[in-house]
Write a structure and sequence with these properties.
Strand content: under 5%
Largest sheet: none
Number of strands: 0
Radius of gyration: 18 Å
Order of helices and strands: HHH
Length: about 80
């Protein structure tokens, strides 16, 4: 006879929703950082990159740091894209 899983062993809907948001944020951030790095390797100037991709060099560095934190499992703060 199987016993029911303990309540704390089950993920709540909120936990699943938060995890989905985290995965979406990771994918979006990864694409933006990858696009920036690909174009930069092709010799595109940073000012043109900023206009083309719609965010500054400082934002690129923040997104790159966020991406690394997400990959490392470290996440504090708002889930919104800055």
């Amino acid at each position: 006879m199987r016993s029911k899983p303990h309540k704390k062993d089950c993920k709540s809907k909120e936990d699943v929703s938060t995890e989905k948001k985290r995965v979406e944020l990771l994918e979006q951030t990864e694409k933006l950082v990858t696009d920036w790095e690909t174009l930069k390797k092709q010799g595109v100037d940073a000012k043109i990159l900023q206009k083309t991709l719609g965010f500054s060099l400082a934002t690129y560095y923040r997104k790159r740091k966020l991406l690394q934190d997400l990959r490392d499992g470290i996440f504090f703060g708002n889930l919104s894209m800055r």
